[in-house]
Amino acid sequence: MIKNKVILGHIVFSLLLWGYTGFYTWYRAPQWIAVLLPLGSFFAFNFMVISWYRVTDGLKLEIEPIPISSWGISLASRLPKEEWDDLRTKVYRDADYKCEICGNGEEQLHCHEQWAFDDKRSIQKLVRCICLCKTCHDVKHLGRSKEVYGKGHISLLVRHWCKINKRLEQDFYMYEKEIFTLNKKRADKFYVIKVGRRILV
Ligand SMILES: [Zn+2]
Known about the structure:
Blueprint: H1 2-26, H2 31-56, H3 75-78, H4 81-94, E1 109-118, E2 123-133, H5 134-140, H6 142-148, H7 151-165, H8 169-186, E3 192-195, E4 198-199
Parallel strand pairs: 2-3
Antiparallel strand pairs: 1-2, 3-4
Helix pairs in contact: 1-2, 2-8, 5-7
The structure holds zinc ion.
């Protein structure tokens, strides 16, 4: 889906480039304008595409927003408290009481439910539960964190994301925009939530 968009973008851009060059030649503009302007734009565009790939590829700590129709529906809220406590204790123990992303064992630990989305069939399926420190978990649910915490904590989360993923702050903002645009598209749908074969909602 994303690759198709990039290919389509390249095709549209190449067509514009031809039109642009043709336009300048038609009006007998100086040759250097007819050549350099479109060429410069072409390289700028490709640079943007390449840096976008770098931003989204191979991230260790990703933002995982939940579509609006699924807010408040989770294993934590649906399982009886004792069952949920048993499950998360096991998750913490299996991870040796350390965050599975950044390795921090000093902070409060959270059990994060990782979901996979089938947008065509509107299915949200549980992949697994992982042990995370509070900071990594706050990054995972950045949308919610922004509603709950102030600017100071959010900048800390941005810095944490950059440190774990070895990226720049500007990469974070590009990535955040991509993720929230995707989640906005999911907001119009109603997802069936599945845990194994069990349908939660
Ligand atoms: Zn962590």
